[in-house]
Structure formats: C-alpha cells, structure tokens
Amino acid sequence: MDVLTLSRLQFAVTTVYHFFFVPITLGLSIAVAIMQTAYYRTGNESYKKMTKFWGKLFLINFAIGVVTGIVQEFQFGMNWSQYSRFMGDIFGAPLAIEALLAFFMESTFLGIWIFGWDRISKKLHLTAIWLVAIGSNLSAIWILAANSFMQQPVGYAVRNGRAEMTDFFALITNGHLWVQFPHVFFGAVATAGFLILSISAYHLVKNEKHDVFKKSFKFGAAYALFGSLLVILVGHTQAQYMIKVQPMKMAAAEALWETENPAAMSLFTFGDEANRKDIFAIKFSGGLSFLAYNKFEGEVKGINQLQKETEEKFGPGDYVPPVAISYWTFRIMVGAGFLMLLIAALSLLKAYKQNYEFKPITYKIVFWSMLLPVIANSTGWLFTEIARQPWTVFGLFTTANSVSNTVSAGEVLFSLIAYTAIYAVLMVIMISLMKKFAVRSVNEIEIEDHEAVEDNILSKA
Amino acid sequence: MDLNIIWFILITVLFIGFFFLEGFDYGVGILLPFIGKEDRERRAIINSIGTFWDGNEVWMLTAGGAMFAAFPNWYATLFSGFYLALVVMLLALIARGVAFEYRSKKDDPVWRNRWDWVIFVGSFVPALLWGVAISNIIRGVPIDANMNYTGNFFTLLNPYSLVGGIASVLLFTLHGSIFLSLKLTDTLLDRARNVAGKLWLPATALLFVYVIFGYFDTDMFSKLGVNPGVIPILAGVAILSVGYLLKIKKEGWAFVMTGITIAFSTVTVFMGLFPRVMVSSTNNDFSLTIYNASSSPYTLQVMSIVALIFVPIVLAYQAWSYWIFRKRVSTKSKLEY
Predict the structure, then answer these.
(1) Rounded-to-integer distance, Cα B293 and Cα B67, Å
(2) What is the block-wise mean pLDDT of chain A (461 residues), using blocks of 10 residues?
(3) Are residues A304 and A396 in the same domain?
(4) A114·B77 Cβ contact <8 A
(5) Nearest residue, CB atoms, B69 vs list A93, A104, A160
(6) Which residues of A touch B85 (CB under 8 A)?
(7) N or C of chain A: less Cβ packing under 10 Å?
(8) Which residue range forms the structural domain that includes residue B215?
(9) Pairs of CB atoms within 8 A across A/B
(10) What is the rounded distance in angstroms from the CA atom of residue A254 to the CA atom of residue A286?
(11) Which one, of A143, A181, A196, lies nearest residue A28 by Cα?
C-alpha cells in the first residue's frame, strides 16, 4: 500500500476509535452534572450514589478519550504536513483555541472534581463538574469549527500559495458548524443515555431493584429519547443543508446516478459502482425530493451531472466519492437512529408505568441497544469524511495533496500497526474495567463511600 | 515588536509551562517504582500529582496547537520530520495517561505493578525525547529549500541530542523528587529527600556537559557570545544552589531553583534559535524562521486576542487548583487513584 492509503487508513482507525469515547464524555459529563445537581438540590442519597456510580464509568471512559486525543492533534502535522502547510493559517487556530479554552478547563476541573469530594464545598464541587461538562462540549464546538471548514470552506482567500484566513467570525458562524455541532451533541446525549439505560436494565434484571437504578433507568430513557429525537430532527436539517453545500455527498448517500425531478429515495440499492448504475433497487418515488425540500417534487442532482460540473470547474479528474461505502454508512447511521428512537421511547414508557420487569428478549434488546449509538456515531463520521473525497477541504484541496511528503510508507505502516495494537489492548482493558464497575451493586458504592470517609478521618487525625 | 516575535515569545512561555509542570510529573512517574515500595506508598505518590497531571499535559497540547496556528510550517516540518520519534512518544503518553486512571481500579498486585512500570516508561520516554527533540532543533537537522526534513530517524540520534535527552531526564527527575519532598510525609518524604540529594550532582554535571557540548556542536556560541548574558548564567547558578538548599532542607526554594533552571534553559534555547524556529543543517538559508514559517498577520492578530484573554484566565484557575490541593499526601490520606 502507498503512503496515502496507509495514512488514510491510520486516520480512519485512530479517529473512529477516538470517537468511540468522545460522545460518551460529552453526554455523560452533562448527565453526571445533572445527577449531582439533583443531589445538591434535594440531598437525596440516591442521587449521590448515581453521581458516584456513573461518575466512575465516566472517568474510565474519559481517560482513554484524552490519550487518544493527543494522537489526533499531532497527526495533522505528522501524517498530513502538506495539508498543515496549506491550511494551517485557518485550521490551526481552532485547534489552538480548543486546547486553550476547552482542554485546560476540562482537565483542571476534572482533577478538582475527582479530588474534591468532601474536600471542597459542595457548591464548588458541583461547579467543577459543570465546568468539566462545559469544557468538553466547548472542545467539540472548536474541533467541529475546523471540520466544518473542511466541509464548507468560508472566510478565506487563497494567496501566498496557501489558504489564509480573512474572517474569523465567518469560521465560527459557518452554517455547516451550526447544523453539525447540534447533530454531534445530541448524538452524544443519546450515546450516554443508552449507556445509562442499558446498564440500569442489567441491574434491574439481576434483581437489584434499587431506587438508584430505577431512577437511572428512567433518566437514561428520557435522556436517550431526548438525544435520539433531536439528533434525527437536526440530522434532517443537516441533510437539507448538505444538498445545497455538498450535493455530491448527498448523491453518493443515495446512490443517485442521474439527476431526477422528482427524485426518488432509495430504500435498497445494489449497484454497479464502476459503471454507475443500479443492478437492483427499490425506490420510493419523490422521497428524496421530500427529504430535500419538504415536498414531493424538486430537482436533486445526480452523480454523473455533478461529476461533469466539477470537471468543468476544477479540470479533469474523478470527483465521485466511494458510492457504496457512502450509501451504506449513511443507511446504517439513519437506521440505527430510528431504532434508538423507538427503543428509547418504549423504555421511557416502561419507566413511566413503573414497570421494571423485563422479558428476556426485551432485556436483551435494551441491553445491547447501548451499541446502537456507537454504530451510528462511527458510520456517521465515516460517511461525512468518505463522501467528501477526493477532497480534504471541499473544492479547495485534495486528500492526495495533503499527505506528508517526507514520511515513508514503511514508517506509516509501523505507526499504524503500533497504534492499532495499543488501541486494541486498551479496548480490552477498558471494557474489563467498565464491566467491573458497571456491575457493582449499590452496596459496593456505599462501602467505597464509607472507606473514603474513614480515609478522610485518618488523614485529618 | 511585531506579532511574529510575540508569538515566538508566547510559544516559549508555553514550553516553559510545559517543561516546568510536566517536568515534575514526568519526574514523579520515573521515581514511582523506586520511592514507593509498597502499594499504599505508590498510591500516595501518584495522588501527589493526581489532581494536576492532566492539566499539566494540556500545556504540551496547547504548545503544539499554538505552533500549528502561529507557525504552521514549523508544526508541519517538525512533526512530519520527527515522525518515528513522535510515534514512540505518543505511544508512551497514551499508556501513561491511562495508567494513572486505571492502576488502582483493580485490587490485584500484578495488575498494579504492571501499570507502575507503564507509568515509569511512559514518563521516562517523553522526558528523554523532548530533550532529544529540542537539542536537534537547535543543533540543526537536514531541511531542504522547501522546508522538508530530509533526514531519517537515526539522524536525530547524535551524541549532542542524546546528552540533551539524558540531561532532561535527570533534570526532570530531580525536579520531581523535590516536588515529592514538598508533597509527601514520613518515610516517603525521607526517601524523596534522599533521592533528590543523590540526583543533584549528576543532573548538574550533565547539564554543564550539555552546555559545553552545545558551544561546540551548535551555533549558540556565535549567537550568544562568550558572555551569554544574565539568563543562561542564572539558569546555571540556580541549579548550583539546589545542592546547598537541599542540604539545609529548604525544599521550597530548591523547587523554585530547579524551576528557574528549567525556565531559563528553555529561554536560552529559544534565544539561541531566534529568529529561527528550526535550524537547517543543509543550508542556513533553508532554516525555518518566525517569518517564513508563520501564519498570516490576520491569523496572528486573532490568536493574539484569544491568547491575551484566555492565558491569564487559565493561569489563574490552574494556580488556584494547586492552592486548594496544596496539602501533603500521606499513605493514610484519602486516595483517589
């Protein structure tokens, strides 16, 4: 494999892996902060135990999110140095601001939160977790500002042989950012919601019908429903935005070869990508027009026409992203999203009826549903990055031009293997720890709490 | 003074913050298996930096981000050029960060002991490699007219950079042992003091070897002159005073002095570089400078405003976090990690 392919593969592996953990951090930080707020307001011990229980899982997840994030920040320079030179004037700024504004905040106040139990005032301690939650989510805004520029470049001019920033505010008011960030954010809320929901179901089934897990189940269901519903609604807005800004991406998502009016939505397409035609397809006529314009007519451009238009603009070349991958990742994401909506809604209904008995099949579905958002998050990112190809920055700079020209294929192969190996080991370790702390009974949280108090008395003596 | 110079200074400041703060917690990580004999002792040692290590590491991320934003060509050349070394460093940092969080989450001596050695290696490797990297930046590496690094991994391993790497390991370990003298109690305190006392001489000696070596192997001599000025001299005086301060058990002052040594050595290196940011050994004209490697004036302006507002805020809350957790940690304390 050549250096470009290897570098892309490495970017995919490290980024998808990093993004297993990021949504949990974003969503769970807020969830834990809400639980602790409930404890602070009511003094109800159940909320304290919830804070501690979910807080522990949050920390186990957070650590791995942080360390895999370091790779993210370094690899632009390491593997994509030509990209960094061409785009650094614009792309570096949000990354630096992310570190300065968000990383410092989340890491410092997380330290204060971990060590602050019974050491600092309750109010200050509560503030700390909220600052962690705000810091984490702020970091998402900045990195997505950078990514949005790659999808829809704004506020720049090409001069001195590179893209230079001309308007910082255009960068942060980029329309793409404000459909993308809510999508990522509500996806993260859903991810955390399902984690809470699934693990609570485990406890309710394993006969620990403790108030802590009833409350958690209800909270998880509501949180998951809120996230799933909004991620779908925002996703719809995002798709309509995409048709305007990146029509090729939408055409690839739908395997729409020719321009259609009204445009049909594909329910299932088995296609011949090389010859750009369907072999077998079930289509819902007018569906894509409806998705695009909220009415059953309206022109949606197809791949062939878009390819021609792009060639006229940028010269000869292949401007069609890998269609099959785009098509299926998009479908898996959307499918997972609707399943999430359904499961979350039924779970919340269950919680409202105070029905905490599960049939084996129901339990299985609810338990494994924690993987649905993970699948949706991963396929969503794969789609959004792959269907932008051959560009790194849409219409401005290609992926082939972005890769480091001084790093050899052998070196990238080495790092790819090394990252993959360490990430695999960490995944095994992380899951084993998550499991250990996820199956803890309320009793065990109490014992730990008690030990901590004893420790504290000892240290004061 | 133009914005390019201001950003050169700001990045120097970020590296000072990084080396000063991560310096001691790399040192603590390196000393962990040696000063802590049994589990509760090791936990106390980890907890002494438990609140801080993650925030300290962000100094490195911010320095990297600032390089990217203000001097994209520097970021691109350095990070792609030093590729394999950085991969090794990243692997170390990945393992290290996870180790702090995961080590005490299982009550299994084998598990914990393994993580302790991960912390050791994860701290030792970056401490070494940062010394190696900085030495190579100042010594010069092959860079062509298009700012591309033309050497390989082994180009980076030369006597000067290796001495620099070992010197930085020793200096950070000394800094860490003094930090532990300020944070621990009882037998652990005695051990930390003992280690600091033993480390001072080799660390100081190697640092001077490194400086002398630097006068022959880099162009620092011609740049700074026979009288290098007050900052490098103070860096030297500070490290010399540490031996005495440790003897009279003034660890607070000793910590300030190793801090000054780290800060002023960093300043000296950057002064030697200025206005270059990476020296080309191929041709001096190919060196990256704060002008040919920089972002546009507009981006520098935007970033200056952001930095002006947020750097003081970050400094304030981070200092405050050190203040609220200023108490010493003993094996009987409530331990989180």
Answers:
(1) 10
(2) 94 96 97 97 94 95 94 95 95 94 95 92 96 96 96 94 94 95 97 97 89 94 97 94 92 91 87 85 86 88 93 92 94 96 96 90 94 97 94 93 94 97 96 93 76 50 37
(3) no
(4) no
(5) A93
(6) none
(7) C
(8) 3-324
(9) 240
(10) 13
(11) A196
